[in-house]
Amino acid sequence: ESTTTTCSLDQQNRDAHQRRDPCLQEMQYNISGTQGSFWAYVEPDVNTMYNGNPPASTKVEFPKFNGFSVKFINMSNKRLILKWVPFDKNQPPVQMSVMLPFHEAGTASFPGHNFILTDEYDTEYHRFVIGDSPAEANLQVYDPYRVEGPEDPVATERTLQQVLAPHERQQYDQLRDTLLFHEQYQQFTGRSYLANYLRDPPRHFIWPVTHFGQQFWVTTPETHFTQLPPAQLLNPVTTDDTARHQNPVLTDYRDRDSQLNMTLTVLSVAPRVLEIPNFLSATEIQHILQIATGMELSRSTVGNSEKDLQKRQAAEVKTDTRTSFNSWLKREKSPVIDAIYRRAADLMRIDEALFREHTDSNDELKKKKSLAEQLQLVHYDPGQEYTAHHDFGYRDLKKNQKARFSTLLLYLNHEGLEAGETTFPRWRNAETFLPLKVKPQAGKAVLFYSQLPDGNFDDYSQHSAAPPTKGEKWLINLWTWSPYMDDDE
Ligand SMILES: O=C(O)CCC(=O)C(=O)O
Ligand SMILES: [Fe+2]
Questions:
Q1: Is residue 441 included in any domain, yes or no?
Q2: Hey, how many other C-beta atoms are within 10 angstroms of the C-beta on 7?
Q3: d(CA 378, CA 467)
Q4: Which end of the chain has fewer CB atoms at under 10 Å, N or C?
Q5: Does one domain contain both 275 and 397?
């Protein structure tokens, strides 16, 4: 018998994160007799967010905004339909998503909201009434097998053995382990465990944010375009890995300096939000909008890809909270767009090769999907908005769930625009119960993370796009995923 312990790449990455991130603390847990230790994200005390220079009060100002993320868990072997019940009794319930057996769905909600689970004939199986606080209401469980009271767990076990087939039992147990882990995680961190037990920490670098106004600097060779290259030089770039260049292209049309210095400034510690002025040049913005105005803009859909939308409906809650218009722009569309991806990768300290289809060096034949989505261009007219939501979702129940990891927002204009801010209503701070509001400014970027350094999803990453009161707003979303993007398995 060998006593050698092996160390996978994942484990190495995990160790690297533990060394790197200042907010991880080791917690012990016990799931059905299995002991383990976990590096949990623990939110820093609000005092420390001011770096020794706190305001008069050092108490967290609890946000006026009272919404939070809600994850519904179907612990039955039935395919059920999740519906939101409007307050107006004359309105019929609104279908949110189809919940497969032992699957999850999620949305942002508020205290007092009602949801029901029905079968396809509208028979009601369960009603969820959303409680007041995230701690009690983040997870909404439908478990028809659980026998409450002193007879549990013996009676529950008997029921489970009678009702569930072995493969169903396995799925049920996985969800139950997740709930057990959630309880212990919540005790240790004060937060709900929104991911599935046990999700790996993100594969990718996260800026180790500790205080307001903290700055990080990144130097990139992907300098600004200052002049638009002639049309014949703006052909789509190849998707063939081997043809990829290492050095910046079209330097004649770029800033004369050989490097671009980018400064990231921390706007919020929890959630982690950073702003980067002058990420895009005026020429680049003009180029993007030029391509965009020649494109068909479609009604915004909540989700990450139009073509997969139908498939996603089973797993994702659809909302009518987004009234803006959007369209998608491929990285390969032009060398300018490609340069923006490379710059964004440098900003996030992620290898740009991971932001396109690439070949895993360990497996020459295996094409890997990109971590980064296409650019999503969004346009708001006065009154159009995107109400408070999360960018992560509950795609699958695999051990290491794929989910959106970070969002890079790129503002394309501000002249003539009033309001239309990006808001983070749940940021932790000691000064105001009002949302953090980020004002659009042409060329400015905002980076925030939907995942915590411990692999959990960050409920505080909830954000909204406030409606412009005057003028229009143009913005780009660049989403990345961890461990990698959802595919069509
Ligand atoms: O428009 C904004 O400021 C934010 C957009 C956003 O959150 C989204 O599209 O997911
Ligand atoms: Fe968003």
A1: yes
A2: 10
A3: 13
A4: N
A5: yes
Picking from 189, 206, 234, the residue at the C-terminal end of a domain is 189
ipTM: 0.99
Report which of 338, 356, 84, 78 is spatially closest to residue 225, judged by C-alpha positions.
Answer: 338
CA 376 / ligand 1 centre spacing (Å)? 10
**Between these two residues, 383 and 303, which has the higher pLDDT value?**
383
The answer to whether residues 473 and 338 belong to one domain is yes
Residue-wise pLDDT for 161-218, tens only, equals: 999 999 999 999 999 999 999 999 999 999 999 999 889 999 899 999 999 999 999 9
Residue 424 in contact with ligand 1 by CB distance below 6 A: no
Over residues 212-257, the pLDDT tens digits come to 999 999 999 999 999 999 999 998 887 666 667 778 999 999 999 9
More confident: 303 or 382: 382
Check pocket membership of 391 for ligand 1, CB cut-off 6 A.
yes
- Taking CA atoms only, the protein residue closest to ligand 1 atom 9 is 477
Residues 304 and 228 occupy one common structural domain: yes
Domain residues for the domain of 284 are 215-482
Pocket test of ligand 1: the residue of 392, 422, 474 to mutate, having most ligand atoms within 8 Å of its CB, is 422
Same structural domain for residues 173 and 283? Answer: no
Taking the centre of ligand 1 as the mean of its atom positions, its distance from the CA of residue 68, in whole angstroms, is 17
**Total domains present in the chain:** 2
Question: What's at 384, amino acid-wise?
Answer: Q
104: Cβ below 6 Å to ligand 1? no
230 and 176 both lie in a single domain: no
Same domain, 273 and 146: no
Angle at 100 between CA 96 and CA 106, to 5 degrees: 40
Neighbours of 96 (CB within 10 A): 21
pLDDT above 70: percentage of residues in the chain: 85
Asked if the model's pLDDT at residue 398 lies above 90, the reply is no
Ligand 1 pocket residue status of 466, Cβ below 6 Å: no
Tell whether ligand 1 has an atom less than 6 A from the beta carbon of residue 475: yes
CA-proximal residue: ligand 1, atom 4 (nearest): 465
Closest to 338 measured CA to CA, from 222, 232, 430: 222
Query: Can you give the CATH number for the domain in which 76 is found?
Result: 2.60.40.780
Cα–Cα nearest to 449, from 299, 264, 285, 315? 264
Beta-strand relationship, 139-142 and 68-74: parallel
Question: Does ligand 1 lie within 6 Å of residue 477's CB atom?
Answer: yes
Last residue of a domain, one of 189, 223, 252: 189
Question: Which ligand lies nearest to the CA atom of residue 477 in the structure?
Answer: 1
